[in-house]
C-alpha cells in the first residue's frame, strides 16, 4: 500500500482498468503537470454526456474535464470560468451563470451535447440550464481525455492558473445525451446506467504526477 501511494505521488502509475467505486481522485496542489489521463473506448462522437462530482475551495478559474483532438484542443471542455460554468464544444463556448457553486461542498455537474441539433445543456446539482445552440457536426479525430487540466495542445500545454485543486469522483461519459430522469438518478446517486464510453466502476486511466486515489469521505451522524 505504501509503495502504491508512493508511485501515485511520483506519477508512475501505468494505464490500467480499476473499479473506483467509493474512491476519489485528489488533486492536492496547483500545478501545470498533474492530471489524470482517461482512455475512452471510442474516438468519434455524434453526441456526448459527461457527468462528474467535484469538491473544491477554488475561487479562480479551474478545469474539470478536457477532451482534445489533433485539430481542436477544445473539442469538449468543461471548466469554471469568470464565475460561470463554460462548456466548450469544437472551440465554441457557451456561458452559464447564476449557479450556487459553494466551496467545500460536493457538486454534481452533467453536460450534454448533440451534434445534429448543436444544443448544449448543463445540469448543476440536478437543476437544468436552458438548452443553447453551440455548434453542430461530429467530433472526429484521435481524442485525448484529461481530468484536472485544460489542454492547449493535444495532450498538454497546461496552464497552472486553470488547474483543478480538490477532489473529483464518479466520472462517466456516454456517447448520447442522457434523459432528465437518467441525470436525476445520477445526481441523487440512485441506480443509473453507467457510462458506455468511460465508466467509473471500470475506469481505464493513467495518473500523471501528483494525483492520489483516496476513499471518498462520508459525514458521520
Task: Describe what this molecule looks like in 3D.
It contains two helices and 16 strands. It has 221 residues and is mostly beta strands. The strands form two sheets. Strands 1-15-3-13-5-6-7-8 form an eight-stranded antiparallel beta sheet, with no helix packed on it. The relative contact order is 0.30.
Measured as a percent range, the helix fraction is under 10%
Report how far apart the termini are: 29 Å
Q: SS-based structural class?
A: mainly beta
Q: What's the alpha carbon Rg, rounded to whole Å?
A: 16 Å
- Note poorly predicted spans: 1-10
Average predicted confidence as pLDDT: 92
**Counted beta strands:** 16
* H/I helix tally: 2
Task: Provide the spatial order of strands within the biggest beta sheet.
Answer: 1-15-3-13-5-6-7-8
Describe the global form: globular
Q: What are the secondary-structure elements, in order, as H or E?
A: HEEEEEEEEEEEEEEHEE
Q: How does the major sheet shape up?
A: 8 strands, antiparallel
Strand content is: 35-45%
List the helices and strands and how they pair.
Layout (H helix, E strand, L loop, with lengths): L1 H9 L5 E3 L4 E5 L7 E4 L8 E9 L6 E8 L2 E10 L2 E6 L2 E2 L13 E8 L4 E6 L2 E2 L3 E2 L10 E4 L18 E9 L5 H8 L15 E6 L3 E4 L6
Antiparallel strand pairs: 1-15, 2-14, 2-16, 3-13, 3-15, 4-9, 4-14, 5-6, 5-13, 6-7, 7-8, 9-10, 10-11, 10-12
Summarize the structure.
By secondary structure, the protein is mainly beta. Helices cover 8% and strands 40% of the residues.
Which structural traits does this protein have?
about 220 residues, mainly beta, eight-stranded antiparallel sheet, 2 helices, globular
